[in-house]
Amino acid sequence: MNTRFFSELLQSIADRGRALIPGRERRAPGEVKTASLVDLCNQLLSGRGEASGVALAREILGEFNEMKTGERVAFFEALSNTFGHDHAQLQTATAAYQSDPSETNAAKLSAAAEPRRQELIRRLNLAPGATAALVAMREQLLNALELRKDLAGIDDDFRHLLSSWFNRGFLVLRRIDWSSPAIVLEKIIRYEAVHEIQDWDGLRSRIDPTDRRCYAFFHPALVDEPLIFVEVALTREIPGAIVPILDQSRTPIDPKMATTATFYSISNCQRGLSGVTFGSFLIKQVVEEISREFPNLSTFVTLSPVPGFAKWLNGERRKDESAVAPQDRNTLAILDTPGWEQSREKVAALMPVIGPLAAHYFLVARTGRGRPVDPVARFHLGNGARLERINLMGDTSVKGISQAAGLMVNYQYVLADIEKNHEAYAANSEVVASTNVKRMLKTEKLPRALAAQS
Question: What domains appear along the chain, each with residue ranges and CATH number?
Fold first, then answer.
């Protein structure tokens, strides 16, 4: 009720303030949008009153929303070229600080070092519903960045501000169950990014049984709009395959008999918030929440996809010198046979070859920056998890076969080791892994650090 009241109040201020915008009534419908939008942005930055500022912000966001792709890119170019740093002011502030490094001059230098567009984005956030509109604007910017790397500076500003606005202190953890509002349940179906939910029955099987849980983070400015959510299965042991987890005909277990909480799907809902990290906070808080409800739980793991393995393996197969041994190349040709996963003989032939290569993928393969090549691994290892187990043929769905040759993995969160594991990864990109995973790797390919730990 309070949120609705303030939203309506801002809307009223915006409606009244619109009449205070000079020249607004003279603009023709066919006028060039980018130029007029830049003019409005300059007016917004000129320090006008609150009412006209709210109206201007609403006007700018509304017009941006109506723009076509090319017009939006032109607007981003204007943000880059017109609303960057005031170089003269920056030079003056730098000279003053070098001459007298006082707190006052340091503050002036800090203010001068900020691009004008950061203040513009802050003022745009005055409008009713502006936070959601700015998240959507950044999504459009991310689309443009795929071809226009020169706009990266604008994205840095968006990410800087959104990281503050979506600070963990503003987020609210809510459990999603069958009694949650229909609008939220519909979005859980739509945003599920790991294991598609086909229909309402599929959703109910994931959130309604006594041994299933779903939690999401929400932000007060995005009402009924989940930012990220996690689906949890309560089990008696660490699962190695996704089919039994998703089986709608299974018999639920008594959650008081469960020993393991398995995070089997984590979905980010807002692409415009990419790079604003919620996942680590979500996992840690869900562990705390679910431990209070079920103190019998002692093990916390994921059942995670391996989205880049098939692509990496295909690349290795094409190289003359690679992780693929010459004697294994003919066996790996089975992967080119449609439906190979349905043949026991082909699976039996492949798995002894796939296993060591999977271990190499996680323990040895690195990006140009020296990080693990798998994005899901980077996420969980960076959060302090341990690579516990590689599950061959853990996901035999079409997606699981095409992206990962059927692989799934378990990352385990041991509360006492999280900080130590995080530091090892952050400092040296170390992949903390169980002995079972290390044993899958052929001895001659085992890095010294890992060999010493075995």
Answer: 2-165 (1.20.140.90), 169-302 (3.40.630.180), 305-453 (3.40.630.150)
Please give the Cα distance from 433 to 411 (Å, whole number).
9
Residue 290 CA to residue 288 CA, distance in Å, equals: 6
- pLDDT per residue as tens digits for the range 90-100: 999 999 999 99
Over the stretch 25-78, which tens digit does the pLDDT of each residue have?
A: 444 444 456 788 899 999 999 876 667 889 999 999 999 999 999 999 999 999
Per-residue pLDDT tens digits for 195-208: 999 999 999 999 99
- Residue 238 contacts residue 262 (beta carbons within 8 Å): yes
Tokens 């600070």 map to which residue?
167
Say how far apart CA 243 and CA 383 lie, in whole Å: 26
pLDDT-based confidence at residue 152 (cuts at 50, 70, 90):
very high
Question: How far apart (Å, rounded) are the C-alpha atoms in residues 431 and 424?
Answer: 8
Q: For the chain, what is the radius of gyration of the CA atoms?
A: 26
Does the pLDDT at position 18 exceed 90? no
Q: Which residues are catalytic?
A: 304, 380
List Cα–Cα distances, 142 to 63, 71, 118, 137, in angstroms: 19, 15, 17, 9
Model confidence at 9: pLDDT above 60? no
Candidate from 9-23, 188-202, 247-261, 430-444 with smallest mean pLDDT: 9-23
pTM, two decimals, is 0.84
